[in-house]
Amino acid sequence: MFSQKLAQQPLRRLAVQQPYAMRWSMTNGVSPASVALGNNVQKRQAATSSNTSDPTQILARQRKNRPVSPHLSIYRPQITWIGSSAHRVTGIILSGGLYLYSTAYLAAPVLGWHLETASVAAAFGALPIVAKVGLKSLMAFPFVYHCMNGVRHLVWDLGRGITNQQVIKSGWTVVGLSALSTLVLAFL
Amino acid sequence: MASIARQSPLLRQSCLSAIRAPLVNRNAAGVSQMVAFHASAKKQILPPLPQSIQGTVNDPAPVPHTSPSHGSYHWSFERLVCVGLVPLTIAPFAAGSLHPVTDAALCSLLVLHSHIGFEASIIDYFPKQRVPKTRALCNWLLRLTTFTTAVGLYELETNDVGITEGLRRIWKA
């Protein structure tokens, strides 16, 4: 309200002090003759219709700039999500190994490979002890981790142990037990 | 006419600025913030494709066809396979290698479990909307390799010593 009064003040002052100038400015010098002859063209400084851009596209443009999920590296490493991704990664490693080995076993007679248990066992037995322990650990860790974490998943499916503290505790338990069983299996 | 001619540059300018404004703001904010807060290089391993809208902006999300065989039955079947795998995984460690029948059961469940797992991964990482051809290729590749794996395991079970006895022999070698 104050700003309106402030804007009206010079206009009032003009009307009081110079009424002729005021009347001239109000009519803007347009005579009825000029209007009749079509010499007067009204001017509008603000466009009232925006026929150049489709207003329905404003929302569409906003939707196209929706944020995308950020890269994994910005999250703090926590046992909850690291353990969960490790479950999938170990599962893909194990199943991928099974798929590759059985498909290769099926194709072996055609390709002339020797993947029978006897040949593979003989080849493995010929390796130095360090390589044996290393290979066994590489095979055992994904296996024990995926098995134990799988049991954890089955417990969650029963609706148990799903508070944050329980998940953290069971996650580290599985990591510890897998490390221990990997060592046992590697030196078996 | 004269007035339209005079107004049109103004109009054009306002339209352009309306279109450019979000881009300019975002760029200015993005660049300045990145310089201020990021000490290391920006690592974006999978930059998003330009987003698109199918239909109109106010269309609801499509509801997939509902079927218990893709919902609850599917979920229960997956859990049954997992639960079945637990004793079959523990048994060889307790009792040495398995009887051919239990060994065959282990192999079948392993193939089912692997197929379900790979399928879930393909669904997660190759969205149909984004990479429809790669998705279809992966799905067919999975079906093919699941088949070859199953036949390969059958060969291993029938012509060889079986998976548990085989692993035991390799492990003890």
TrEMBL record, chain A:
InterPro entries the UniProt entry points to: SQR/QFR_C/D, Succ_DH_cyt_bsu_CS, Succ_DH_cytb556, SuccDH_FuR_B_TM-su
GO biological process: mitochondrial electron transport, succinate to ubiquinone; tricarboxylic acid cycle
Recorded GO MF terms: electron transfer activity; metal ion binding
Topology of this chain in the membrane: Multi-pass membrane protein
Biased segments, Polar residues type: 41-56
Main location group: mitochondrion
Highest rank taxon of the organism: Eukaryota
Pfam families on file: Sdh_cyt
Keywords: Heme, Iron, Membrane, Metal-binding, Mitochondrion, Mitochondrion inner membrane, Transit peptide, Transmembrane, Transmembrane helix
UniProt xrefs under CDD domains: SQR_TypeC_SdhC
UniProt GO cellular component terms: mitochondrial inner membrane
Transmembrane segments: 89-108, 120-145
Region (Disordered): 41-65
Entry annotated with the keyword Lipid biosynthesis: no
Subcellular location: Mitochondrion inner membrane
Family: Belongs to the cytochrome b560 family.
Name of the protein: Succinate dehydrogenase cytochrome b560 subunit
Naturally occurring in which organism (per UniProt): Aspergillus ruber (strain CBS 135680)
Automatic annotation (TrEMBL), chain B:
Localization in the cell: Mitochondrion inner membrane
InterPro entries the UniProt entry points to: CybS, SQR/QFR_C/D
Lineage: superkingdom: Eukaryota
CDD domains: SQR_TypeC_CybS
Residues reported to bind a ubiquinone: Y125
Binding site for heme b: H113
Gene Ontology annotations for the cellular component aspect, listed alphabetically: membrane protein complex; mitochondrial inner membrane
Signal peptide positions on this chain: none
GO aspect biological process, one term: mitochondrial electron transport, succinate to ubiquinone
Keyword presence, Nucleotidyltransferase: no
Cited Gene3D superfamilies: Fumarate reductase/succinate dehydrogenase, transmembrane subunit
Family that this chain belongs to: Belongs to the CybS family.
Protein name: Succinate dehydrogenase [ubiquinone] cytochrome b small subunit
Source organism per UniProt: Aspergillus ruber (strain CBS 135680)
